[in-house]
Design brief:
Oxidized Rhodanese, domain 1, single chain, 6 helices, alpha/beta
């Protein structure tokens, strides 16, 4: 019997977009260095090593995000307990839409995401630094 998927990723993204704040990359670039903002990169570590990263952004892999946000989790990260605005981004802006919605649903606030993700950031001339691979 074939599966009957009734909620598509496009539907999920559209629903999340309607519930969160979205920031154009050109505006997000102005947030670098703002002490009241935490840029959160949810890309995979391989993406960071291949494409570089936003200087000062906190890396929280998408697969660990909920656990790192939840203060009752053994994986909790103090960075998510600060009184800041959290601006999430991924490579193209789809994963970060969903991540931002989940973070908001968990109670993290204020939150937003960068439209078009890291790709839009680079196109808009945002600063990028390369990541040194970790030595074994």
């Amino acid at each position: 019997m074939a599966q009957n998927i009734t909620l598509t990723t496009k539907m999920m993204i559209d629903q999340a977009r309607a519930a969160i704040e979205e920031i154009p990359a050109t505006e997000a670039i102005k947030l670098v260095g703002d002490p009241n903002v935490m840029l959160v990169d949810i890309r995979d570590v391989r993406e960071l090593q291949r494409d570089g990263k936003v200087p000062g952004a906190f890396h929280a892999p998408r697969g660990m995000l909920e656990f790192w946000i939840d203060p009752t989790s053994p994986y909790y990260k103090d960075v998510f307990g600060q009184d800041k605005k959290y601006v999430f981004f991924c490579a193209g802006g789809m994963r970060s839409v969903l991540a931002t919605k989940v973070a908001k649903d968990m109670g993290l606030q204020p939150v937003a995401h960068i439209i078009g993700g890291f790709g839009a950031w680079k196109t808009a001339g945002g600063p990028v630094e390369m990541v040194e691979p970790k030595k074994a």
